[in-house]
Structures are given as structure tokens and as C-alpha cells.
Amino acid sequence: MKILITGANGAIGGEVVSLLNHEYPKAEYIITSRKPNVLMKKGHFQLDLRSELEDNKDFIEALKDVTHVIHLAADVRWNLPHEEAINNNVVTTQNLVDTLTQYATKVQRFVFVSTAFVNSPKKKEEMENDIHIDGEDFNNTYEYSKWLSEQVVIKSKLPWSIVRPSLVVGRTIDGKINSYNGLYHLIRLASSGLVPFIVGHPNSHIDIVPCDFVARVIVDAMLQDSLKHEIALAVSGEAAPTVEAVMTRVYQVVSSERGKLNAPALKQPPIVSYDTYNRLYKPLAQKALKHSQYKLLSLLDAFLPYLSIDGTFETNDNVIVKAPDYTEYLSKCVNRWCADHTKIIGAEESSRFKATMNS
Q1: If phi over 0 gives left and psi between -120 and 50 gives alpha, with beta otherwise, what is residue 163?
Q2: What DSSP element (H or E) covers 234?
Q3: Looking at the domain assignment, is residue 341 inside a domain?
Q4: CA 341 from centroid of its chain's CA atoms
Q5: Is the pTM of this model over 0.70?
Q6: Handedness of CA 282, 283, 289, 292 (dihedral sign)
């Protein structure tokens, strides 16, 4: 096998490379990235997938014997402007597909890693940042760009498989992850003691999956004939924890770690509905807080859709692969984050910010 992997430095990419190296030590690899790659020196190309890939003759030559492709590279920010999301995710996918179609004639499987939220369960309430376009509903431009990228892959002549993970967190065994995105931004805010409330619904399910589980699904999608031209959902589904359960676990672990640093435990903030937040808390914050404080609070907006889901992921005629129970890994993930961010969890709370919002 000769495997091309994009986005190998990301939250999932490192796990995929590690799993493949363990199970297929004789395979050859091509890694593309915009930065120097620490995972693998040999077969590494520093490429910007948004540009014309055909300009790199060495890369084109290396593609001739590629048998499998895993496309993980993406801009995962939820608040990207529309055009930037399209350029960073859809254009890169189209460029890669076009280049592979022309030069990589031995490809047996092209695995595109998307997000389960391109077909998200409905939310309990409409939100002002919702996107309604092309007859579909999306929570943000990231999801929309991933949906468009899926269409590029499906319409291609490549033998494709699509993997849709939900919110990715650390490994099952030790909570380790290559990069802290998604749910970790909420953990960061909560750990700082600067979150006076959580916007969502206590009984809503927040679907999380460990990165090693997602890596396993991706490798299976690359090799199993049964997953050719299929969409595989890597999700927790009905076993997904509730918002209240996740936040309770986060605050328990963070408070424990703060205790080790002689910092006081954090009081878990209340969970308020989007309607209450929009009508009462947000207008108050706009008037009472400094710009920097309000900007911090506004970061919560990106999480609103994921904390207000009504229901869980269903198959919808796609293949569904269930993740391990969250109780096996969530505490480890929060512990790992705390170990890497002792300055944040050990800091004193901003009393002015807390007093303003609590009043």
C-alpha cells in the first residue's frame, strides 16, 4: 500500500498515522501539510491544497503509485466567513479530487472525513446564526462547507467512502489528543472560571467520540469493501451523554485539579435556554461588560447549537458505528487538558466579570 494522508497533524490525523504504522508497518506514506510535519519526515510534502497541486512535479510523480487516500485536512473553525469556509474546505477538496483523478490512477479508496453535523438532529429552538441553504439546515459555515465537500467527493469518479464523526475528544485510554478544538474551547472557558452560565438544555444530548475510535472507523473505511460508496457515522447516538452530565463531569475534574494547585473549587454555573440567554443575559452583557469581556462571552455562541439538540443521531440509511461509553474516557480527556493548561485552571476567577453576570 502507498497511502496519501492530508491533515496528519490534526486531532484525528495523528491517531490515523499511528494506527496505520502499527498495523501496516511496510506501507509507504505521503503526508501533505502547510507546515513542517513532525510525524513523518520521509514522503512529506509542504503543500497548500488551495493552490494548484499540479505545480509540484515531485508530488505529481509520487501520486502515480498511491493506492489509498485519507483526506482529513480542513479548517475546523465554526465561525468562518462564508467565502473563507468555502475556499479553505470545498476548494481544497475539489483541487485534490481533480489532481487524483488525473494522476493517481491506482487509487483503490478515497476516504473523506466530514462531520456528522452535516445532517444534525433538530435543535429545540431556532437560532439567529442558523444557515438555511440549498434545502438543507446547518449550524454554521463549517458544516455547510463540509456538506458541499461531500457532494464533490460523491460526484467524483474516485472509489470513495465518507466518515462523519461527531465532536472529537481525546483517546479512550489516556485522553491524549493532537490538538484541542471543538468541545475543548468550552472546557477552556469553564476552567478559567469565567463562565457565569451555560447556554443549552440540561437534557439535550451532546454527541462526543474519542479520536482513537474515529481513527479505527477511518482505517476500516479505507480497507473494507462493504464501506465503498458508503457514508459511515462515527457517533455515540442514543448513548451520547446529556449536557448536564458532561458539564458536571467537567467541573468535577477541573475543581479536583484546581485543588491540587491550591486554587478554590469552581461552582458549576446554571444551564439556561437559548431563549432566556437571548432575551435577558445577552442584552445585559452588552451593556454591562467591557468589550474584551463580552467578546469572551460571545465565544459561547458557537456552542449553542451543540448544547440544544433535540434527539440523537439516527442511521438515515447510512452505516452507523457506535462509540464507546463516554464514562470510559471523558474524565481522562478533561484531566489531560488540565495537565496541559495548569496556568489556566490555577488562575483566580475574574470577580468583576462574575459579579456583573451573577447580579
Answers
A1: beta
A2: strand 231-235
A3: no
A4: 20
A5: yes
A6: positive
DSSP run (H or E) holding 109:
strand 109-113
- List of residues 6+ apart from 116 with CB closer than 8 A: 164, 165, 166, 207, 233, 234, 235, 313
Residue 61 domain boundaries: 2-170+207-238
Whether residue 354 lies inside any domain: the answer is: no
Closest among 356, 359, 357, 354 to 194, alpha carbons compared: 354
Report the DSSP pairing between strands 167-169 and 231-235.
unpaired
Which residue do the cell numbers 452583557 mark? 285
Q: How far apart are CA 72 and CA 79, in angstroms?
A: 19
* pLDDT tens for the 359 residues of the chain, in order: 999 999 988 899 999 999 999 999 999 999 988 776 555 556 788 888 888 788 889 999 999 999 999 999 999 999 899 999 999 999 999 999 999 999 999 999 999 999 999 999 989 888 888 899 888 899 999 999 999 999 999 999 999 999 999 999 999 999 999 999 889 988 888 887 777 788 899 999 999 999 999 999 999 999 999 999 999 999 999 999 999 999 999 999 999 999 998 888 888 889 988 888 888 888 887 787 777 667 766 777 788 899 999 999 977 778 889 999 999 999 999 999 999 998 888 776 544 445 444 54
Which residue is associated with the grid cell 505529481? 60
The CATH number of the domain where 51 resides is what?
A: 3.40.50.720
